[in-house]
Each structure stands twice: as structure tokens, then as C-alpha cells.
Amino acid sequence: MGKGKKVDSKEVGLEIGLIIFKYFFHEEHLHYGYWTEGLPRDLAHLVQAQENYSNFLISQIPAGVTKILDVGCGVGRLASKLINLGYKVDGVLPSAILVNHARNLLGDKSHIFECTFEELRTDNRYDLILFSESFQYVNLEKALENSGKLLNEGGHLLISDFFKTEAAGESPIGGGHKLVKFYDLVSRYPLKNLKDLDITRETAPTLNLANDLLSNVGHPIWNLIINYLTSNYPYLSKFLQWKYRNKIAKINRIYFSGALNAENFATFKSYRLLLYKEAKA
After folding, report:
1. What is the DSSP string of 163-215?
2. Tens digits of residue pLDDT in 134-170
3. pTM of this structure
4. Pairing relationship of beta strands 269-278 and 191-198 according to DSSP bridges
């Protein structure tokens, strides 16, 4: 009998995140919030901040757009909202777990391609390709090349995601392409920049909420697990802490040191909304 397919830890993490958000917030949004002036920076208002983000993103879609490709469409919440507004929307997802959620939500209203954006091959063409917190996961060159193939003449590319700044030191927050590298690369393609909005200030407070949750919930649970293993299975505990000492140290450094905060995010990341229009000669 062959071995079963291994479960990807990222897939499990996504599913856990969906369960938590659905239970506590009755929502399945898995993206940053957009914290407008006067909106309290607390968990009670996270869903409102995330709804603000979706509304802000939609407000940036140019007039005349009818068909959209939502790259990394998550569970399909944004796609569903766009469809209800009259847009025709397809999605792209490499995650089987999220694909199932999206297909259950959208049904036959949207076609979900189960692959990476770089692997996507279709005869469909779109007025706008949307990357909402998914651009950091794609290969820059391949993504820009494929965008050109999938856009209708005069189509748009809308990117809303964070990038790495040139700040000195090591960022405790992972992810993102270098902003200067992106600017250099995109300048070589037939794309005219229409908007470049820095929304770091509006999105950064989300990190403080994540940090509070990790400090007040995640860290105590982590310590309870360690203490339980140490007390009841001392030899196993010593072996595991030796075997995975580097991973454990990394978990403590990244998640439980308090470094995942808005200040560090604003230092090492730049959250941008970028709108480009195809400008072929």
C-alpha cells in the first residue's frame, strides 16, 4: 500500500485560522484590516476593519472593468462581494483546502483555478487582475509575464500587499518582495502606473492585535504544553527540545518575543496599493 499524501503545515494553519475566525468573529476573512480614523484598535473592531479593507479595495477598481481574476482569492469572500456588485470573477488558488471553501461559497458563479498563478494557463482574458495580499507569494518575473498574457487590451493590474523596505536590521516579520526590486522590474514591462498609495499606517495596527493574541493566548498555551511534556514525559521532552531546538527558538523569537507589532511592521514593511494599466505600444 502506498503512502498517503503528506499534510502541508501551511494548509493546516489556514484551516485553523478559518475555524478561529468563523467561531469568534463569524467571519472567514484572513487579511489585514484597514483602520480608518476613529476606529478603535481592538479585536472587537477587527471585522469592521477587514470590511473597510474590502470596501477600500473595491473603490479602487477603475470604471469599465467587468471581468476580474482574483489571484489568491482565499475562501471567496471578496469574490462573492464583487459578483454581487455585478462583476464577473474567476479565482486562482493553489490550496486545496481554500479551493473547497471558495467553491462551496461561490458555486457556479465563478471558476476557481486550482494552481499557482505562474502555472495558470487559460484562454480567458480579464479586464483586471487582482492581487490582494497574494502578490508576496508569486515569482515577480513570472507573475508579470503571465499578467500580460491574461489581460485584455488596456487591462489593469491591481496589487494590494506589503513589500520589504530598505530599513537596516533583520525584520521579525517575514514576507514581501523588496519594494525597490519590484519598482525596477515593473518599469521594464508595458504597464503604466496610475496609483501608488502607501496604506501602511492604516494596516499596521493589525499587527498589534496579532501580538496581543499571541502574548495573552498563544504563549500561555505553548508554555502549558511544554510544562505538561516536561512533567509527564521528561525524557521525550528533553529529546524533542534538543531535536527541534532551532525551530523552538525560532518560534519563541518570532511569535512570543513581542516583536510582531505595528512599529516593526511600519519600519520593515511598506503596505502599498498599486494600480497599473497595460500600455502596449
Report:
1. EE---SS--SS----BHHHHHHHHTTSSEEEEEEEE-HHHHTHHHHHHHHHII
2. 999 999 999 999 999 999 999 999 999 999 999 999 8
3. 0.84
4. antiparallel
Residues 244 and 152: beta-carbon distance below 8 Å: no
Within the chain, all domains assigned CATH 3.40.50.150 are found at: 9-204+268-278
Phi, psi (deg, nearest 5) at residue 130: -110, 125
Q: How many angstroms separate the CA atoms of 93 and 120, rounded?
A: 10
CA–CA gap between residue 53 and residue 160 (Å, rounded):
10
Give the gyration radius of the chain's Cα atoms: 20
* DSSP state for residue 148 in the 8-state scheme: H
For the 9-204+268-278 domain, the top CATH level (class) is alpha beta
127 pLDDT tier (thresholds 50, 70, 90): very high
Scanning the structure block, which residue is given the C-alpha cell 521532552?
Answer: 237
